[in-house]
Amino acid sequence: MKLAVDEQDMLEGKGGLAQQKAMELLVEYAEGLGAERFVDTNNVAVLTGLFPYPELIKKLVPTLDADEIASRFFLNSDELVVVDKVKAFTTSHIYRDQEYPEVQQGGEFLCEVTKKMERYCRRIGITNLATCSPYQSGNVPVMGEHCAWTESSAIPFCNSVLGGRTNIEGLHSAFASAVTGKTPLWGMHLDENRLGKVTVDVEIDMTGIEEWNLMGYYVGGQIGLDIPIYTNINRTPDLTRIMALCAAGAASGSTVMFHLVGHTPEAPTIEMASGNRKDLRVLKYGKKDRRETYEQLNHSVRDDVDVVVLGCPHHTIERMGAIARMLEGKSLHRDVDLYVTTCRSVKAIADRDGLTDVITKAGGLVLEDTCGVFFDLDTSKVLASDSAKMVHYIPMTTGVQNTRFGTMEECIQAAITGKWKGELR
C-alpha cells in the first residue's frame, strides 16, 4: 500500500486508537483486494443493526456494552475501542422495529441490542436513517462521488442511477471507512471497471414493476458480477421500477452496476457504456426467459396464502399510497397477516397523511426500520410478496419454503381473500 501522510499517521496511532484500528483493518482489506492506495470518502452507509446470531452476542458481550459490541463486531478488535466521532458523513442501515419485537427474529433481546446500537451511532455522529434505501431519506451521492456503502440493492442504485462510486462493502470495511474517511481505490471506484461487458437485448415491453423484478432476477442469475448494458428500453423507469431492478439483480447474481442505454448517466449510448468494446457478450431477454423466471420465483403448489410481505427494498411514499388506496374500506382475510415495511422518514409521512391508518384499519401492519427477512415466521406458511429479492431470501432466512411472487395488486388481493389468483399475463 502507498499511504498518504494522513493515512500513515492514522496507522501509527496519531489520530487515536479508533482510527488506528480502523486503518489497520482497511490496510489488510485493501492488500487482500490488490488495491495500491486509498481514496477519500465522505459518504458511508453502514450495517450497524444487523445481528443474525444473538447467542454470539450473549457469549462475547454479556454486558451488551455498545462500545464493546462495536469493538468486536465492527472493528474486529478484542481490545476495547471507544470511537469519539466518525470522520465521514455516515448513515445507518436497517435496525428493528421496536414496537413489534414479537414479529421479528431475536424478539425483545435483539430489539434491545439494536436500540443500544442506535444510541451508539447517534453518539458517534452516524445519522440514523435506518433503511436499506438511504437515497430515499437524504443520503444522495452525486455523480463521481466516492462512497463506501453496504446493502445489496443500494449499491447498484448508487453506481448506476446516481453515478456515485462504491463497491460491495461489508460491516467492517464500511465502519472503518466511516472512522477514517478512506476506502480502497479499486473496483467500482475506477473508470475502467464501470464499463459494461454484456448487452441485454430486451424483447419485453417493460411496463409494470413486476417486469423489472423479473428481468433483474433473470439477468443477475445469468451474468453474476458482470455489468449488463440493457438495450431497447423504450420507457423511462421511475424510482420503484429502478429499485426493483437493483434489488432483483443483486439477489440472484450480485449485480453491482448496470447501464440502461439512454436512461442512466453513464450510458447515453451503448458505445459509451461499453467503452467501445467490440467483444460484448449478447444476452437476450424474451418471453420464454420471463416465464421461466416467474416459475422459479413461485415455489408453492397451494392456493392458500397466509402471509403477505411488501416493501423490499423499503417502500416509497408512492407505493404506501397505492397500498392504502387498494385497502381503503376493505378488510384482510382473518387468517392472513399483511406486513408492509418502509423507512422511518417515509412512515412519518405515511402516518401524517393517514396512509398508515388505512392499512392498519384493514388489518395490516406497517413496520419501520426492519425487513421481512428478519421476521419470525411459521415455516409451514405460504408467503406472497411483490419483491423478487424477498422471495429469493425468505426460504434461507426464515425457513418458509412455500412462496408466491406477483404484482402488488395480486398480493393485496391474496391478503383480502386468502387465496392466490396471480398469474403471468
Describe the structure in your own words.
The structure is a single chain. With 425 residues, the chain is an alpha/beta fold. It folds into 3 domains: 5-190, Aconitase, domain 3 (2-Layer Sandwich); 195-295, no CATH class; 298-417, 2-Layer Sandwich (Aconitase, domain 3), CATH 3.30.499. Helix content is 40%, strand content 12%. The protein is built from 16 helices and 14 strands. The protein has a 5-stranded parallel β-sheet with strand order 12-11-10-13-14, with helices on both faces. Strands 8-7-6-9 form a 4-stranded parallel β-sheet. The chain has a 3-stranded parallel β-sheet with strand order 3-2-4. The chain is globular, with a radius of gyration of 22 Å. The model has no long low-confidence stretch (mean pLDDT 96).
